[in-house]
Write a structure and sequence with these properties.
By secondary structure, this protein is mainly alpha-helical. The chain is built from six helices and three strands; from the N terminus they run αβααββααα. A three-stranded antiparallel beta sheet has the order 1-3-2. A hairpin with a 2-residue loop joins strand 2 and strand 3. The two termini are 27 Å apart.
């Protein structure tokens, strides 16, 4: 299981982090220019979000002259793994397979993506179990597992 290494960040903060992950080191002006195209936020809003991300330990700052450079402390991959783990921690174990299938059916995938998933599924076949055990406490799910 992946450690939950990141604090909970809002959807708005996630938009800022995407800019930081892509650019590695970025100024607030650069973040503002990029995010304003998509979100139409005021500069003050963006600076507030940057400040929150610094406080949460998601961005580090470095003063260079009269400006600050922001860099991500946690990689996008680490954040995505943490979010995915957190998401699946909120599901009954028996619903994970169906949820993954739903996600795949809704996603636009390249041929390479499909091949990667097929290869992974072939590998997972060797680890598959006949029945996934329910991990819920009584009253938390509607699976047919007996909670007695």
């Amino acid at each position: 299981m992946i450690n939950k290494i990141q604090p909970n960040i809002s959807d708005a903060e996630w938009e800022i982090m995407r800019v930081a992950w892509t650019n590695h080191t970025v100024t607030s002006k650069q973040i503002t220019e990029i995010v304003k195209e998509k979100m139409n936020w005021k500069q003050a809003t963006i600076k507030t979000l940057i400040g929150r991300l610094v406080e949460k330990g998601m961005l580090k700052t470095e003063a260079v002259g009269n400006k600050y450079l922001y860099s991500p402390i946690i990689t996008e991959e680490e954040s995505l793994k943490s979010k995915t783990t957190d998401f699946f921690d909120h599901l009954c174990n028996r619903k994970v397979g169906t949820t993954i299938a739903d996600l795949i059916s809704e996603a636009t995938l390249s041929h390479a993506d499909v091949q990667m998933l097929e290869d992974l599924l072939q590998q997972k076949k060797g680890e598959a179990v006949d029945s996934v055990p329910c991990d819920c406490i009584p009253g938390q799910c509607d699976c047919q597992h007996s909670h007695s």
